[in-house]
Amino acid sequence: MPIQCYILTVLGAYLLGSIPTGFLAAKARGIDIRSVGSGNIGATNAMRVLGKPIGMAVLLLDALKGYLAVWLCAVMAGRAGMVPADAAVLMILAGIGAVLGHNYTCWLRFKGGKGIATTAGVYLALAPWAVLVALLVFLLLVFGTRYVSVGSITAAVALPLTVWVMTPHDFFLGIVTTALGALAIYKHKSNIQRLLAGTENRLGKKGGAK
Q1: For 37, phi and psi rounded to 5 degrees?
Q2: Contact, 116 vs 185, CB < 8 A?
Q3: 132: helix, coil or strand?
Q4: pLDDT value at position 201?
Q5: How many domains is the chain built from?
Q6: Per-residue pLDDT tens for 24-49?
Q7: Looking at the whole model, is its pTM more than 0.90?
Q8: 209: closest CA among 63, 34, 57?
Q9: Contact at 8 Å (CB) between 182 and 126?
Q10: Residue partners of 60: CB distance under 8 A and separation at least 6
Q11: Whole domain around residue 177: which residue ranges?
Q12: What is the distance between the alpha carbons of residues 51 and 34, in angstroms, rounded to a whole number?
């Protein structure tokens, strides 16, 4: 397969993922979300700053970016008559591009969100059962601890573990999922510092971070 296909796939998915939905939703209300709450453009900060309905919309749109990147790639690969193995690689690359686009959006000087919702959208298309397990872990930890960050970090561990268990034959998918999980945890480094210091805000309080 020409290298151009891989490059265009990642670039197209990156641009789709780079749409800063949280920033745009806040901008429509006359707010720069980067200067309020945690300063993050993700759904949790949007929910705290803009309210639950808008925050949920941002969450769904961020997930949709990831899902669409992989789904559109699958559709185009099918129409091109691509062999399944090559199509699978392109779909995984599209997922990587979408998450990187969200985390490092070119529209905001390469500063974006933390990629949890977008990664969930990607794996809803790539490995839906693994997403279900990670979602259950996320909900259990969030409701148990009242920390969204704890749920997100734990889900970032659960997703690759589940992918390895459910698809042990797909080495590339396992490696990529592990790398994306590690990236998600890295993006939560400030949350981890606040958790260790006892200053992380619990769910329902203003000013918390995700």
Answers
A1: 60, -130
A2: no
A3: helix
A4: 85
A5: 1
A6: 999 999 999 999 988 999 999 999 99
A7: yes
A8: 34
A9: no
A10: 117
A11: 3-197
A12: 16
Question: Does a structural domain hold residue 72?
Answer: yes
Q: Distance (Å, rounded) from C-alpha 180 to C-alpha 175?
A: 9
Domain-embedded: residue 209: no
Q: Judging by beta carbons within 10 Å of its beta carbon (0-12, 13-18, 19+), is residue 155 exposed, middle or buried?
A: buried
Tokens coding 82: 């691509």
* Contact (CB, 8 A) for 86 and 1: yes
Token pair of 25, please?
């939703």
207 lies in some domain: no
Please name the amino acid found at residue 104: Y
Q: What is the mean pLDDT of the chain?
A: 94
**For the packed helices 52-79 and 116-126, what is the interaxial angle rounded to 10 degrees?**
40
Which tokens is 174 given? 């396992």
Angle at 173 between CA 167 and CA 176, to 5 degrees: 140
Query: Are the C-beta atoms of 22 and 58 separated by less than 8 Å?
Result: yes
Backbone phi, then psi, for 110, in 5-degree steps? 65, 30
CB-based contact 62:22 (threshold 8 Å):
yes
Number of Cα atoms under 13 Å in the Cβ half of residue 207: 4
Distance CA(132)–CA(40), nearest Å, equals 25
Is residue 171 one of the residues assigned to a domain? yes
* Residue 207 φ/ψ region, left for φ over 0, alpha for ψ in the -120 to 50 degree band, beta for the rest: left
Tokens (6 digits) for 148: 């969204």
User: According to DSSP H, which parts of 80-147 are helical?
Assistant: 84-103, 116-126, 128-145
